[in-house]
TrEMBL record:
This is Dephospho-CoA kinase. PROSITE patterns: DPCK. GO terms for molecular function: ATP binding; dephospho-CoA kinase activity. It is found in: Cytoplasm. CDD domains: DPCK. The gene is coaE. One of its GO terms (biological process) is coenzyme A biosynthetic process. Its EC number is 2.7.1.24. Catalyzes the phosphorylation of the 3'-hydroxyl group of dephosphocoenzyme A to form coenzyme A. Coiled coil: none annotated. Pathway: Cofactor biosynthesis; coenzyme A biosynthesis; CoA from (R)-pantothenate: step 5/5.
Length: 206
C-alpha cells in the first residue's frame, strides 16, 4: 500500500503548482480528484449513464459528452438534484482515487483533493499537507486568474472551508503567500520528511 500524502488548499492557493513541483523535482506520482471527477462522467461511463438516466439525453452535447453548463444550471436551481448528483458521483470518484493510488510507483503518492475538508476525505490519506494562503491573497489571485470581480472571488472563497478548518486537519503546511521561488525549499524539506515517514511505516510493519 503506497504512503499517501493528501494535498489540499483553498482556491488559488497554488495546489497545482505545488503538486507539479513535487512531480518535476522528485518524480512523485499525482492523483488529482478534479481530473478524476471529469473522467467519471466521460462517454460510456457509469457516471454519465446515470446522469442521462436522470436528466435525459438533452444533458449531452452533440458529440455525446456531458454539457457541464446545462448540468450546473439544473443542480444550481434544485438542492435535491445537487444532492442526487453528489450521492451518485462521489462514490465513483472515491473508488477511482483509491484505484489510482494503488497503481502509484513513486516513493509516496500525492492525492490532490481541493475539497478534502468539505468531503471528510482526509481518511484516505496517511498525512495531510495544506497549502496555506491568507484570504486577501486568495481573492487577488482569483480575480486575476479567472477575470472575476472581487465580490465573485469572495463568494467562491466563502463557499469553501475556511482557513482555520483546513489548518485543523494539517500534518504539514506550505506557506504560499509570496513568490513561487519560496516553494521549492519547503518542498525539498517535505519530500525528505515524507520519504522518512514512509520508511518508518514500512519498518513498523515488518
Amino acid at each position: 500500500m503506497p504512503f499517501v500524502v493528501g494535498l489540499t488548499g483553498g482556491i488559488a492557493s497554488g495546489k497545482t503548482t505545488v503538486a507539479d513541483l513535487f512531480h518535476q523535482n522528485f518524480a512523485i506520482d499525482i492523483v488529482d480528484a478534479d481530473i478524476i471527477a471529469r473522467q467519471v462522467v466521460e462517454p460510456n461511463t457509469e457516471g454519465l449513464d446515470a446522469i442521462v438516466g436522470k436528466f435525459g439525453a438533452d444533458i449531452l452535447q452533440d458529440d455525446g459528452c456531458l454539457n457541464r453548463r446545462k448540468l450546473r444550471e439544473k443542480v444550481f436551481s434544485s438542492p435535491q438534484d445537487k444532492q442526487w448528483l453528489n450521492d451518485t458521483l462521489h462514490p465513483l470518484i472515491r473508488s477511482e482515487m483509491a484505484h489510482q493510488v494503488e497503481l502509484a510507483q513513486s516513493d509516496y503518492v500525492l492525492l490532490v483533493i481541493p475539497l478534502m475538508v468539505e468531503g471528510g476525505l482526509q481518511s484516505m490519506t496517511d498525512c495531510v499537507l495544506v497549502i496555506d494562503v491568507d484570504e486577501e491573497t486568495q481573492i487577488t489571485r482569483t480575480m486575476q486568474r479567472d477575470n472575476v470581480s472581487r465580490e465573485q472571488a469572495l463568494n467562491i472563497v466563502n463557499s469553501q472551508a475556511n482557513r482555520q478548518e483546513r489548518l485543523a486537519i494539517a500534518d504539514e503546511i506550505i506557506k504560499n503567500n509570496g513568490h513561487t521561488d519560496s516553494l521549492l525549499p519547503q518542498i525539498e524539506a517535505l519530500h525528505a520528511r515524507f520519504v522518512a515517514l514512509r520508511k518508518n511505516r514500512q519498518q513498523g510493519t515488518l
